[in-house]
Write a structure and sequence with these properties.
single chain, alpha+beta, Glucose Permease (Domain IIA), seven-stranded antiparallel beta sheet, three-stranded antiparallel beta sheet, 18% helix
């Protein structure tokens, strides 16, 4: 597991460096407008790739925290033998893109499928867009499935964990900019959120396993 602790996420270094370099070149050529635009773009990347430290308020083994920043767009009850609830959280470019482990435990299964990055309005969004699926198992053998669907983004999904890693709640496990995340939970789970709630990775409580 590569747990990057710098104030700027490692995936943003090249974007920030390139735009600052271009701003410098435009400044030398006295192209002040283009230099200013490039500098503003660099500031946007610095903000977008921020990597804040966050304290975990819910240390109970049965507590599940949000793996992403965003807005809860829907909560559905499922007619499924394994999962009873599906929570959809939508993240934008303004949200921190760091993905964080929702429970302490290990990975049951994981897959990453590279694909397109079309708008979520596209009929082929779920079929063709890039996605990552991670099934976590906590210390009490409860399972949580998290699926990240990439929307229109210039950066691919990055997953920095493997099936052999021991996971701790709140640990960074990857990066996904501008995505939709689905969280699947079993019948023995008590929800603590509602649609339209704003959530923060590692700081917002999703609920508890009974």
């Amino acid at each position: 597991m590569r747990n990057n602790l710098f104030i700027i996420n490692q995936h943003g270094y090249k974007y920030i460096g390139y735009t600052l370099f271009i701003a410098f070149i435009f400044s030398i050529l006295d192209l002040e407008l283009f230099s200013f635009i490039s500098f503003v773009l660099a500031l946007f990347f610095i903000y977008n790739f921020r990597n804040p430290e966050r304290a975990i308020s819910f240390l109970d083994d049965k507590a599940v925290i949000s793996p992403v920043d965003g807005i809860v767009s829907s909560i559905d009850e499922l007619q499924d033998d394994q999962y009873a609830y599906k929570i959809v959280i939508e993240s934008s470019y303004m949200d921190v893109g760091i993905l964080r482990v929702p429970v302490s435990g290990h990975i049951e299964n994981m897959r990453l499928i590279r694909g397109t990055r079309t708008s979520k309005k596209s009929k082929l969004f779920y079929d063709l867009n890039e996605m990552a699926e991670v099934v976590f198992t906590d210390v009490n053998t409860n399972k949580i499935k998290v699926i990240h669907h990439l929307k229109q983004s210039f950066l691919p999904i990055n997953i920095d964990i493997t099936k052999n890693d021991t996971l701790y709640k709140g640990t960074r496990y990857g990066y996904a900019m501008n995505n939709m995340s689905e969280i699947y939970l079993s019948k023995n789970f008590r929800l603590n959120i509602k649609p339209n709630n704003e959530v923060k990775a590692s700081q917002s409580l999703i609920g508890y396993f009974s």
